[in-house]
Design a protein that fits this description.
Helix content is 72%, strand content 3%. Strand 3 and strand 4 form a beta hairpin. The chain is mainly alpha-helical. The radius of gyration is 24 Å and the shape is globular. It contains 16 helices and four strands. The C terminus is likely disordered. The N and C termini lie far apart (53 Å).
């Protein structure tokens, strides 16, 4: 910019150029959400994702409160999880084949109708089988996290660093929603009326999905039939890693609930358990600003961190256990981000959402196995010793890891 000139009396004076501040460099998350359309589909994604942490506890509180049976409530929710494991990969395959908006909206409507039917059947004292049928219908709920990750992968296919940041954000969002969801659901069911949690979750799911799918510009194109092979065979070695990861999640939750309950914490149990999710959420956001680590490094850190709750519980110190759960959570997010990145690399072209859903299904199977095993160990060994189970599951992932060294990613053999 040329210097400015001004006249003072009879003298021509060259005025100094105005000082311009240099714009501050944007952080990785600011750059990520400066892309057109990303804020809108993320808002819908978060609205639709929060209910994922609400439906289970809402159903348990509603059924147990109205029917007076936790056994019935647990059986209904277990049936819903089993149905989801069967139906979700097929829903995801249709999403990849025909597009997110075309499949996700009607699938969500079926799931919402299932939730409304559950409320009516519980309220109207309908036969028990109607509760199972209604809750099984919610298995058509699309994998909103997988669809969101597919959008980021489509938008950031030429920017690996930004893609890493996006995947870290998605993992942090998972942790945040599964941390806040049960708290919101429990508050609504107890402070309002027993059906409030289920109805609110259904409304949020439908609203969020409509907002998400309305953003057509960021939607990945549908895959053409025959373009890509089915992902199951290619992902099979990696799915063997996700099962023990699910085991450690399920066993840690059940063991912590039993241990803290035995300590007489009551309502404060949820706050202590939230530390693990909070640590994972914070670590996920931080990991998005750092250079990605290898899967082996993340699993070693996770295995070491999961020995801490076991050791802390043995001391009987509640503050030590709370700190150990926080550290264990902080090791979780980097591991999940890195493992999910392997799914992205292995997924056939146009089958990413199906591939992501297969990984989630493997985790759900592990959670069910871990929860059942931990419950048995609590009954037989007390509420402290079963903390060894999450640590053992994490160690098992290190034993599974060498089998992944021969898996080919993008045509080259990768070392974990």
């Amino acid at each position: 910019m040329p210097p400015l000139m001004t006249v003072t009396g009879s003298t021509l004076v060259i005025a100094p150029a105005p000082h311009r501040r240099r714009p501050r460099p944007q952080g990785p998350y600011a750059r990520l959400f400066s892309r057109p359309g990303t804020r809108a589909f993320t808002a819908g994604n978060l609205l639709a994702r929060l209910p994922m942490g609400m439906f289970g506890i809402s159903a348990v509180m509603m059924i147990a409160g109205q029917r007076g049976s936790y056994a019935l409530a647990g059986a209904v929710t277990a049936t819903g999880m089993a149905a989801t494991a069967l139906v979700a990969p097929w829903t995801a395959r249709l999403v990849d084949r025909y597009g997110q908006a075309r499949i996700a909206v009607p699938a969500t409507l079926i799931a919402v109708l299932g939730s409304v039917s559950l409320v009516l059947c519980v309220r109207g004292h309908a036969p028990a089988w109607t509760l199972f049928a209604s809750y099984a219908a919610t298995a058509t709920t699309p994998n909103i996290g997988g669809m969101s990750r597919a959008r980021w992968t489509h938008l950031l296919r030429d920017s690996p660093a930004a893609h890493h940041t996006a995947m870290s954000f998605e993992q942090a969002a998972d942790e945040l929603c599964f941390m806040l969801g049960p708290v919101v659901a429990a508050f609504l069911c107890s402070a309002a009326f027993p059906e409030a949690g289920t109805l609110t979750a259904a409304a949020l799911l439908l609203t969020g999905m409509l907002v998400f799918t309305s953003q057509r510009a960021t939607q990945p194109p549908p895959a053409r039939p025959g373009d890509a092979p089915a992902p199951l065979r290619r992902l099979m070695p990696l799915l063997a890693l996700f099962v023990p990861l699910g085991v450690l999640f399920g066993s840690m939750e059940v063991t912590s609930i039993a241990h803290l309950g035995a300590r007489g914490l009551g309502a404060a149990t949820g706050l202590v358990l939230a530390l693990q999710a909070a640590g994972s959420c914070a670590a996920g956001l931080l990991y998005g600003t750092l250079r990605p680590r290898t899967l082996r490094t993340c699993l070693i850190a996770l295995t070491a961190a999961l020995t801490l709750p076991w050791a802390a519980a043995a001391t009987g110190s509640l503050p030590l256990l709370a700190a150990a759960l926080l550290l264990a959570g902080m090791a979780t997010a980097p591991t999940m981000v890195t493992a999910m990145s392997r799914v992205h690399a292995l997924a056939p072209e146009g089958r990413l959402n199906e591939s992501m859903t297969l990984a989630v299904t493997a985790i759900l199977a592990g959670i069910a196995l871990g929860s059942a095993t931990a419950g048995t160990l609590v009954d037989q060994l007390g509420p402290t010793t079963p903390y060894a189970l999450p640590a053992a599951a994490a160690f098992l992932t290190l034993l599974v890891l060498p089998t992944l060294s021969t898996v080919r990613l993008s045509g080259t053999t990768q070392v974990p």
